[in-house]
Design the sequence.
């Protein structure tokens, strides 16, 4: 499997999913490109320290997320969200409602989800990681991952539910 | 587990992933079989998940990003220079090179098996009565396939995922891994069950696999209709009784 760790094959395999994850976090092409490039730069200089070849993908996603947090810390201080609130029920939306929206609009709505939920939600939808792996990438406890996804999903679905009404009324 | 609790647990369920292996999820999935109202909610929930996932996966990646990354970093990678590698590594490298050369010589690249032949062979087996391990617990089947490294990362259509499982098999074809899942497609004639046989293999393992994105190819063999198609890195065959449209409903 050592050839799998070759830089070019790593880039070929993961730059797409990493960019998509970065874009879902930043919703800005330039920032998403920067984060993806920065992640591979860190891999090129420090990746040799990783002993377990099977963890490369998780390592790359973790690094990108850390870089995203670093970038955001410089810009804005995260508001504190109370995570002990009751879980709300999922707003009733249908696949058809989602399909009426284009991809860019869904990313825009994801961007409106509260900041602490966004990364977990993006990984939930875009990658086939287990909850444990998502917890490892985001460096938070498993239970926190699940509650963030659950609340983030409720917010996103609520936003989707409201979208046609907002657009219908201009 | 009651339906209310099952619904709570299944909020986090993602179709086509390993979520079904989680014992709580597996228990909740069983509740779906018992409660039609929960089943309707679950179907809608999975549909919404897939729709949002598809939208997010459509995020376009800038075309020149890969080139930029490579330009910036090629040569920056920290590798041990060749002249500093210990002699044992040189010896190991030479041994590996000799071994690879020998292996290549003895096993010249074999031609891939034909998908057409694989399709014919499997349908023949279905007509003769496919030998499988009976199990109606889908979560257990997925768990077994995953744990034992058989093909388990396939995509089931919503309609197929709703059917009760009958069993599975993992018999390879010419050394290529194949997973077969059998679903109960309801009663057809004379009180007989229409078993649906869903085969999954790696697309790259066959020489003439259907191209991804193309419509399913239908065929007929005895009382069976078959459909074959590719999606992602997998190639699929579905076989069951009825006509093309009967089968089509389990593919969409």
Sequence:
């Amino acid at each position: 499997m050592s050839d799998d760790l070759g830089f070019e094959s790593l880039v070929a395999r993961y730059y797409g999913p990493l960019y998509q994850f970065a874009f879902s976090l930043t919703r800005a092409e330039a920032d998403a490109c920067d984060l993806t490039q920065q992640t591979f730069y860190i891999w090129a200089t420090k990746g040799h320290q990783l002993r377990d070849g099977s963890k490369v993908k998780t390592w790359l996603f973790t690094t990108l997320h850390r870089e995203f947090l670093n970038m955001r810390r410089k810009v804005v201080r995260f508001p504190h969200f109370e995570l002990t609130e009751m879980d709300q029920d999922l707003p009733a939306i249908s696949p058809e409602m989602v399909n009426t929206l284009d991809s860019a609009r869904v990313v825009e709505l994801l961007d409106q989800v509260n900041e602490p939920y966004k990364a977990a939600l993006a990984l939930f939808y875009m990658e086939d990681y287990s909850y444990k792996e998502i917890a490892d990438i985001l460096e938070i406890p498993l239970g926190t991952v699940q509650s963030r996804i659950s609340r983030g999903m409720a917010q996103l679905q609520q936003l989707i539910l409201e979208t046609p009404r907002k657009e219908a009324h201009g | 587990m009651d339906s209310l609790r099952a619904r709570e647990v299944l909020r986090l369920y993602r179709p086509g992933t390993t979520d079904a292996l989680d014992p709580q999820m597996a228990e909740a999935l069983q509740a779906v079989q018992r409660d039609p109202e929960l089943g309707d909610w679950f179907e809608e929930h999975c549909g919404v998940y897939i729709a949002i996932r598809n939208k997010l996966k459509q995020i376009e990646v800038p075309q020149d990003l890969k080139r930029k990354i490579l330009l910036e970093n090629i040569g920056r990678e920290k590798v041990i220079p060749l002249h500093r590698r210990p002699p044992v590594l040189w010896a190991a490298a030479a041994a590996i090179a000799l071994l690879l050369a020998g292996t290549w010589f003895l096993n010249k690249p074999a031609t891939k098996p034909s998908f057409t032949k694989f399709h014919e062979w499997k349908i023949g087996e279905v007509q003769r009565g496919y030998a499988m391990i009976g199990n109606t617990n889908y979560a257990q089947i997925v768990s077994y396939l995953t744990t034992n490294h058989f093909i388990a990362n396939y995509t089931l259509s919503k309609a197929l995922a709703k059917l009760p499982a009958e069993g599975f098999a993992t018999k390879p074809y010419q050394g290529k891994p194949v997973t077969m899942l059998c679903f109960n497609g309801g009663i057809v004639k004379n009180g007989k069950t229409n078993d649906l046989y869903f085969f999954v293999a790696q697309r790259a393992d066959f020489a003439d696999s259907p191209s991804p994105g193309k419509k399913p190819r239908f065929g007929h063999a005895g009382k069976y209709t078959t459909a074959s198609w590719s999606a992602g890195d997998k190639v699929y065959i579905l076989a069951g009784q009825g006509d093309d449209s009967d089968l089509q409903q389990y593919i969409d």
Observations:
- The longest strand of chain B covers residues 178-187.
- The CA atoms of residues 39 and 61 of chain B lie 37 Å apart.
- Chain B touches chain A at residues 8, 11-12, 14, 16-19, 44-45, 47-53, 55-59, 61-62, 65-66, 68-70, 72-74, 76-79, 153 (CB under 8 Å).
